[in-house]
Amino acid sequence: MNILCYVDGKFVEPENAKLPISDLIIQRGVGVFEALASINLKPLMLTPHMERFMNSAKSLGIVNYPDVEDMKKIIREGIAKIGRDVRVRTFLTGGDSFDKESGTFKNPRFFVLFDDPEFLTQEEFEKGKILHPVYFRRDEPSIKSTNYHTTFQMPAEAFDVLYCPDGEITEAGHSNFFLVFKNNTIVTAPLDRVLKGTTRGAILELARENGIKVEERCPLWPELSSDDVSEAFVTGSIKMIIPIVKVGGTVIGDGKPGKITRKLSELYRKNIDRWLE
Known about the structure:
There is one protein chain. The chain is of the alpha+beta class. The protein has 2 domains: 2-115, 2-Layer Sandwich (D-amino Acid Aminotransferase, Chain A, domain 1); 122-275, Alpha-Beta Barrel (D-amino Acid Aminotransferase, Chain A, domain 2), CATH 3.20.10. The protein contains 6 helices and 14 strands. The protein has helices spanning 24-27, 46-60, 68-82, 122-127, 198-209, 259-270; strands at 2-7, 10-12, 31-39, 42-43, 87-93, 110-115, 129-134, 160-163, 176-181, 185-188, 213-216, 229-236, 240-247, 250-251.
């Protein structure tokens, strides 16, 4: 449930937050967003999130949005008002019209939702999660748009979908996917195929610092069941590192969270102050 909202230039209670039905985010699904957590009342990876937010907006043709420093100030102010750690979701809508001459949405609306974060519990970590494969690519993977309809079309036991176009594995619906091989190599799709995950970047940085080999290529579907593979995980801004024990009917490794997943999760939590702003 939303705790606080920022819309029309002011903070309001959730029940008082409104958008006109003429906005193209409602009529055509035109909009971009970001989601991040606060830790100890400090936004996690605020700058990378806002940079990606602006890049998504530009790629979609949304212009005339607020200054990034003003958006950061609003986020920090909202966290301070609430006084506890929250999930923050920022949105830019398509506004009420599309300018055909310039090919842009010139009058977007900016709003922010603050609510309670759903961090991964230790019990969930130890059990691991299941992904549901879909055999196509995500539209415009470099853009974090509000179009998440595919992620609602999966079995109840699945944590997320996993995009697997043409025998390759790109990304999950809400997160980046990593396959871990027994030679202590982690493989994840390159940035020209997937969204530039903020947690993805931190994990790759930590892996390289700690002697874990990294390959940026799309894992292949047959590799999921290979004897050379030991484990898998996904990364996200709120749940951080999530062990994946099964994809569809394929069990990954021994079906339990693996040592590399555990090591990187511990390293990330230990070093998280590096990314607090």
